[in-house]
Design goal:
This protein has 626 residues and is an alpha+beta fold. It has 20 helices and 19 strands.
Amino acid sequence: MGFLSDAGGPVCAYIDCRRFTGAAFADGVLTLLGWALLARVTQGHGLVADLARRLPGTDPYTRRLRAVLAKILVEITAGELVDSSGRTRRPGVDVLGTAWRYPRLFCAAARQWRPYLDGLLPRDTALDAMAREIGGWQPRWYVDEVDASSLAADFYLLEWLTAEGDDGARRELASWTPRLAQYLAAQLDLIIGMELCHYERAHGGGNDPMAAFLALVSEQRSEIAWVEGRAELGGSRALELAEAAFDGPGGEFGGQAWAPVAATLRRYVLREISPAVLIDQCFTMQHNNGPLFDKFFDTGRVLQVLDAQAAGELGFLAEHASPAVRRRWRAHDEAKLVQHDPRWLGSAALSPPSPYTQSQAGEQTAKDAMSLRTYRIHVLDTEPGTLGCGSREEEAGLRREEDTPPLADPVATRSRRQQRSKKTKLPLTRFESVRAILRTSAGELRLDLWPDTAPYTVDNFVRLARGQRPWKDPLTNLPGVGLFYEGTSFHRRVPGFVIQAGDRSGTGANGPGYRIPDEISKTLSFDRPFLVAMANFGPSSAGSQFFITLTPAPHLDGNYAQFGEITHEASRARALRIAEEPEPVRLESVTVFTTAPAPEPVQRPAFDATPPAASLTSGVCGTDGP
């Protein structure tokens, strides 16, 4: 699909009505209309003109950044409009590869643009916040391809450090591995859909399963039809047929190189291989043109990194790793030298490893391929220099110098207002006081909850703990049975920051199958440790996940609903120890003591009881942290 333009304005649009049907066709038409309407300059305003004012510059990188950013915003806008259709679909920003080719820019754009589309931010506020964030780094950070060799070097070097007994590296690897595996699996899923387009005519028809499968995935553009076919057939069955299609009728088109890719993803979906094995396979597998991810990544040095890993050339791996992992390796290497003979380094003090804000304990179980449509592009939503940023360049070299005055009257980029959504009425039980005892594998935590400050949040917590509210199991997608919190874990433990629990999948990506309204107080601040608050995926999207702060965290103010505190001294000490525990910490049971419920229930305000879609907004509940 595309359009012809003259004098800066579209004069003709075209779209392939056979390759784009249904929701995908609507997405394509709205994208074309979006270009026509948002790019038009009226009285000096228009999306392109507004971006040029906020991100000035005439160098090629800046011009490219503005063009790609406008493309992303148009595609996101079209996708949001089509989402109301409720169909299983792959959004245009994903089909066209924009989100995967420019993941850093996509995440920065979506973080501000989606709240604007939801009516939570004015347009100018969203664009101003977007420009402030993007303007802090060199444009090439956002438009250059992700370096796959850096991701591989980070992974293999952390594996080596873990084997050497580096506890910090072990925590980093345990946190990052499941998220990176899910990201690579989602990209494999997209690529498989793209490759299936070559085999639509490879079978002469008939009623056998292969012919039906090839007809199904060629009804429209294959990466779109693949998602719908996968939903219809089931993830593992669809991947089994894709493997057979590559290896059989598609063999003459080079399918033998893609059959192992589909087979590896199927084994990951069925949990036959671990996330770490999937990552290793992704970096080592080759397809027709070389390394697997050359569609969207820079793969020019991946083979060199693999050779260095096989030969144990750690210095070469460190050169290609992100600066954060490189610093960790150097500190470990220097510490080993001191161990052997302190005189080797004289009296020079070793620099401690830099803090890592992405640490998150616990394992993420692989899910059925249906979950792959929740595209986890935000795994690369990182700043330069951090673990998994996809670049070996030091952050100082990517920081943008202040060559333009800052925007006037900067505003908070994450202001929250209650989301307007479908009305659902649920009763509210009010309490005079509430105390919760969390029995964990590392000891007992006593929480004093605040029913006067956050009555709906406290009532929701009490009902889930007592098994009085229906919930959905994220692992089976079936109604849950029993007490919600029993048997869950503290899936996120960041020493010196937070511990977090309340996700039965153990991944930090799920809730109880419904969402509750925000009860965020403007008068409360995260000005001290041991506060209890609800995690969320964005405005009015909290459900069951909660976190406990271990230090003052004022940067969280205004974004999360506080509903309690740990005042018991022994519980405070235990919360600090839980963050440092080397093994997973399970939440064995939650007992709630309440007094003086109100005799009459109060109706809950309107909110959307449907599970929230995956959000790219960074937050406490997300895998990347606030």
